[in-house]
Amino acid sequence: MIIKRKICVVTGSRAEYGLLRWIIDGIHNSSVLELQLIVTGMHLSPEFGLTIKEIENDGYYINKKIEMLLSSDSSIGICKSIGLGVIGFADGLNELDPDLILVLGDRFEIFSAAIGAMSSRIPIAHIHGGELTEGAIDDSIRHSITKMSHIHFVATKEYKKRVIQLGEDPSKVFNFGGLGIDNIKKLKLLSKKDLERQINFSFGDKNLLATFHPVTLEKGTSHNQLDELLEAIAYYNDLKVIFTFPNADNDGRILSQKISDFCKKNPSRYCFYKSLGQLNYLSSLKYVDGVIGNSSSGLIEAPSFKVGTINIGDRQKGRVKAESVINCEADKESIKKAINFLFSNKFKLILNNVSNPYGEGGACQKIVYQLETLNIQNLIKKKFYDIDFLI
């Protein structure tokens, strides 16, 4: 009888699950791995679309549901949610007793999971470490998770270098590219007609996909920045926009309300969704002229479709970017200037030669192979890997 290696995958948001989808599938179908699945955070909240249903519809057994998200997006509420998450993961991980937990990214739900695993002496494999988002609290969370983790799957050579710079063993840092590319390759995207029917919205001559998250390291600026974005969009009479709601971060709810109110004033031109789901989201990327806002998807997935990205403000400052990314300030005039450039013939010529710095796909399969074959004994006691610097 083969004793399978128990891999516990943690997911707390729609976007994160979309990235993990094919790794989960690979673990599920592996002859040597046993999948354990913990669902938490926004997945369990009706306010954010109750996206646990997407996971259930994909046919995966959910071993644990950990409620941790308070109905407050204040700093105090987020802090308390982290604490509730740590308590929940302490119990959940103790019961499941995995050989390793697999986490992705930089959200506070994942921070709670990493704290729980570290305290329980369970090895951690971390995906998408080494990245920078200088306008978001995610930066501190991501680097903290890196230091609690033992195996690292990064998306570019720059990020691999940064994880090693944080003192991690180079032999445990693997650059396999961005996970989002695998979804693009594996999913059968909808036709424009089927997508329009699915989301109940008709595309026009000019279309954008918009996601604007709170800038969590700035106090009280997010709603003002969103106002600037909405005013810039309203300036164009021939522009149609599909909005997706922001994450459960500080001030996220006021942004969702502003987006909802804006779209309801002109439903023929604007629509909004708590969660489009991966298939509808990626299908939308195929047919829009560009994405706008401050989501990492505009940097990681959009270049593979050769559509432009208007990246607003500092939330994604520091990430590796393709030539298809147009950076602009978070004010109306700068955003309008970026929109004009997005639709210009000059920019369309740039798009023809764009390559995605996050790779061409295949990361999920490579990660599953490492989970199957990598020696995970004696990982808990880490040595700090020193780099000789010239001072």
Question: Can you describe this structure?
Answer:
The protein is an alpha/beta fold and 391 residues long. Helices cover 42% and strands 16% of the residues. The protein has two domains: 5-177 and 362-373, Rossmann fold, CATH 3.40.50; 188-352, Glycogen Phosphorylase B (Rossmann fold, 3-Layer(aba) Sandwich). It has helices spanning 14-29, 52-57, 75-96, 108-119, 138-148, 157-165, 180-186, 192-199, 222-234, 252-265, 277-287, 297-300, 332-342, 345-352, 363-373, and strands at residues 5-11, 33-40, 64-66, 100-104, 124-127, 151-154, 173-175, 206-211, 239-244, 270-273, 290-293, 308-312, 325-328. A seven-stranded parallel sheet has the order 3-2-1-4-5-6-7, sandwiched between helices. A six-stranded parallel sheet has the order 10-9-8-11-12-13, with helices on both faces. It is globular, with a radius of gyration of 21 Å.
Order of SSEs: EHEHEHEHEHEHEHHEHEHEHEHEEHHH
Percent strand: 15-25%
Q: Which CATH class of the largest domain applies here?
A: Alpha Beta
Spatial sequence of strands, sheet with the most strands: 3-2-1-4-5-6-7
How many structural domains in the coordinates?
Answer: 2
CATH topology group of the largest domain:
Rossmann fold
The CATH architecture assignment of the largest domain turns out to be: 3-Layer(aba) Sandwich
- Return residue spans where pLDDT drops below 50 for at least 5 consecutive residues: none
Q: Give the termini separation.
A: 56 Å
Compute the CA-based radius of gyration: 21 Å
The helix-and-strand class reads alpha/beta
Name of the CATH homologous superfamily of the largest domain: Glycogen Phosphorylase B
